[in-house]
Design goal:
Structural class: alpha/beta
Oligomer: single chain
Largest sheet: 8 strands, mixed
Strand order of the largest sheet: 6-7-8-3-9-10-11-12
Helix content: 25-40%
Shape: globular
Order of helices and strands: EEEHEEEHHHEHEHEEEE
Length: 254
């Protein structure tokens, strides 16, 4: 589904100014997008507003289906939280199956999806292990598999690879961001490698989306003050090196 934000503004109580100041974006259906920016720039706040963990104050965010049907994003989204939330005494497979059950799957279908998505994040050998004895990185992979198993058209992920090593992150990103085309994936991250894997990158700075770019094909779309322009990236011109001037001898000089 297409995700469209218009004029999203949000302030925390006793904050001297809004953390978000009229954020606009338009993420095409089936694309992956990363939200980047310095700490405190409003990345997680924006994601929380999209998923309705926070109530919208000003502006709108809509999920638009190909047939034009408009839904609130929280009704069609699965979450991957920065803080892992699993049922500790249930197996990894049981936890992943919950995602499928939330999508209306039968018991047989849920178990099938659990096996499939645990395999995609490299946890097939851990399927029948209670999640309380998994490592933090393994538990995070279970949470990602659970989100994928729901088959909802939107995935919202807050620092999904924060507890993973580089090698594991690559395989997990392949499973999650590789789902784009079928789903729209929105990821908050500080990791440039995660951002580079996405189709689009939204940079939040000073409460606004300052940059929206496509990394894969060299296109750059910059959104400022509600207006967007698209330009091809050009190689930086080589710096001109000025040769030192040689002083000409004065007439009559020896």
């Amino acid at each position: 589904m297409r995700l469209v934000a218009r004029g999203v503004t949000f302030s925390y109580p006793r904050s001297p100014e809004p953390v978000l100041k009229g954020v606009d974006f338009d993420i095409p259906s089936g694309h992956s997008a990363a939200i980047i920016g310095p700490s405190g720039s409003g990345k997680t706040t924006l994601l929380s507003l999209i998923g309705r963990l926070l109530s919208m104050q000003e502006g709108t965010v809509e999920a638009i289906a190909p047939d034009g049907t408009v839904r609130p994003p929280y009704e069609v989204a699965s979450w991957v939280f920065q803080t892992i939330s699993l049922l500790p005494d249930r197996t990894a497979a049981d936890n992943v199956a919950i995602g499928a059950y939330s999508d209306g799957a039968t018991r047989e279908e849920a178990q099938s999806r659990a096996r499939d998505y645990l395999g995609r994040v490299g946890l097939t050998p851990h399927a029948e292990i209670p999640t309380r004895i998994l490592s933090g990185g393994e538990a995070q992979r279970v949470a990602i598999a659970r989100a994928l198993a729901s088959h909802r058209p939107v995935i919202l992920a807050d620092e999904p690879t924060g507890q993973l090593d580089a090698k594991t992150s690559a395989s997990v990103l392949e499973a999650m961001i590789g789902a784009h085309g079928e789903r729209t994936v929105l990821v908050v991250t500080h990791d440039p490698e995660v951002a580079d894997r996405c189709d689009l990158i939204l940079e939040l700075r000073d409460g606004r989306v300052h940059e929206l770019r496509e990394g894969a094909n060299g296109r750059l779309s910059v959104a400022r003050a509600g207006r967007s322009r698209t330009a091809m990236r050009k190689p930086r011109p080589k710096a001109k090196v000025s040769k030192p001037k040689t002083a000409k001898p004065r007439r009559g000089a020896p």
